[in-house]
Amino acid sequence: MARRLLAIAMVLILGVALAGCATESGYYDPGRSAGAGALGGAATGAALGAIIGAATGSPATGAWVGAAAGGLVGGVGGYLYAEHRNSERRSAQAAAQSYNYSPSQGSVVDINQVYVNPTQARPGQSVSLGMDYTILTPNNAPVTSTLYREIRVGGTTLGQPYQTTVTNANGTFSDQVNYSLPNNAQPGNYTVVSRVMNQYGSAEKTSYFTVN
User: Fold this and answer.
1) Which residues have CB under 8 Å from 180's CB, separation 6+?
2) Which CATH number among 3.10.310.10, 2.60.40.3880, 3.40.50.1970, 3.60.15.10 corresponds to the domain 81-211?
3) Does the predicted TM-score (pTM) go above 0.90?
């Protein structure tokens, strides 16, 4: 019985956590979610802790479940990557013309440009990590690609790398994801590694920004 209650509690935790990330536009707002995470995490943890403690007759069990709930919900609210967007810049025909491409050449997987906006940031500030990439295949079929971002400072990866999967037709696409710097981010030069990978190949480019 206790295990069933714990499983139900974790499902509820996940539901609350994901709901707290949504905004009217459908994108994750790191600023709003961070505040909601701090408040929602404490409230959810206390409520679920009380429920589990009462149901199992074990206040200790309720306490650690409550702590886990608060940590998870608050952690999601403070997650560093957010507001991912992917959109077409050039159609398959326009992209093929720009590359002087013909199907006999095989497949093209290329990153056209990468950029960070702004290039100078402060601790706690959000920066936009951009990548324009092109995919062309002989059969002009939709392709599923993995898009990857990694931020490095002083040779060390900062936090967990970001990775998402998108399926696009052939063409050139613009991909952006926001990254909220930790409040204790150290000053210095930061490197952003951007990568696109799929069954036809991969491409990688780096961009840079500075934290003052």
Assistant:
1) 30, 31, 34, 80, 81, 82, 124, 125, 126
2) 2.60.40.3880
3) no
